[in-house]
Amino acid sequence: MSCLVGKDQLVWGAYCHPSPVALFPAPTMPWSLLLPPLLLLAVSGAQTTRPCFPGCQCEVETFGLFDSFSLTRVDCSSLGPHIVPVPIPLDTAHLDLSSNRLEAVNESVLAGPGYTTLAGLDLSHNLLTSISPTAFSRLRYLESLDISHNGLAALPAESFTSSPLSDVNLSHNQLREVSVSAFTSHGQGRALHVDLSHNLLHRLVPHPVGASLPAPAIQSLNLAWNRLRSVPDLRDLPLRYLSLDGNPLAIVGPGAFRGLEGLTHLSLGSLQGLPRLAPYGFRELQGLQVLDLSGNAKLKWAGPEVFSGLDSLQELDLSGTGLVPLPEMLLLRLPALQSISVGQGVQCRRLVREGSYPRQPSSSPKVALHCVDTRERAAKGPNAL
């Protein structure tokens, strides 16, 4: 049985073959990469279905004048381990292999027509316990990879070297130790988001000095709900967002965030055990704008020096902690601070009172906190004053 699925392709049963008039080889990159962005936006939008491997679903989105280009999303989820290797159309941009009870993925599984141009791959909710070091070596255009909700116990070094990844989800696995070098790639400095939350991590191995490849361009790193007892050494990473929520951090002290001057968002919510914030623990974070300490019921006040150096901090979340609203004198140490969340639904904002007469050049402005219970305001209705 054959059916026409593209300008020059025929599907025979479950496989795609060129028609006799297709004398040129298949493209080596997704069609979207060949189109000018403005033209792509102007002519995209049409979606249809096409014949697919039995049990899978193929959705086609067409681009270009007269729908001359197409990209296909293939959903082969929840079919069982017999599905791999599955033949897919040559223009496949995203492949979903989630929830198939897959126990192994190697280079041969992710090979063949259609795979080398994949931009997205979903392997979540399977039974993977290991990954071959070369499993993704042929996926030269892969940008998004989801391997969450598996049983991975280790991650080979330089696992993603061949792929220009921008998003890697490894949450909900059994990883105990991960090398930062595992995320090194030839992505030419593309910003990378890595989710390692809900694992068993007790250590992150730093990128070695003098390595042949540069440190990975990780800008967003989620390490929430692991077993880290100290802030890992993340220097040389261009981090802007870092979450350490739910870890059993014993102390946050001086030097904990050395080399992370570019960090803008830091979350230390719901830390396990009895966390202690030592004076000058955040001193290296001159660019930090948002600090979340919420959910730490056992967190106690340790003096204004704790927040020393946070000259760019704008938002501070202390809700669910043992810390009372910050004294006004501390606001002078946080010159950029605009809002603080304290208690349960209480939002405080910074007020600067200049007084009736102009200030003297050497005097400081009168700074105060104005706190509002957002729950009461919501209960009164949107029109209440």
From TrEMBL:
Transmembrane segments: none annotated. Its main location: secreted. It is found in: Secreted. One of its GO terms (cellular component) is extracellular space. Keywords: Developmental protein, Glycoprotein, Leucine-rich repeat, Repeat, Secreted, Signal. InterPro entries: Dev_Immune_Receptor (IPR050328), Leu-rich_rpt (IPR001611), Leu-rich_rpt_typical-subtyp (IPR003591), LRR_dom_sf (IPR032675). Residues 1-48 form the signal peptide. GO terms for biological process: anatomical structure morphogenesis. The keyword Electron transport does not apply. GO terms for molecular function: cytokine binding. Gene3D superfamilies: Ribonuclease Inhibitor. It holds the Pfam family LRR_8. Interacts with FZD4 (via FZ domain); competes with WNT2B for binding to FZD4, inhibiting Wnt signaling and repressing peripheral eye development. Interacts with TGFB1; the interaction contributes to regulation of the hair cycle. Interacts with netrin. Interacts with CCN2. This is Tsukushi. The gene is TSKU.
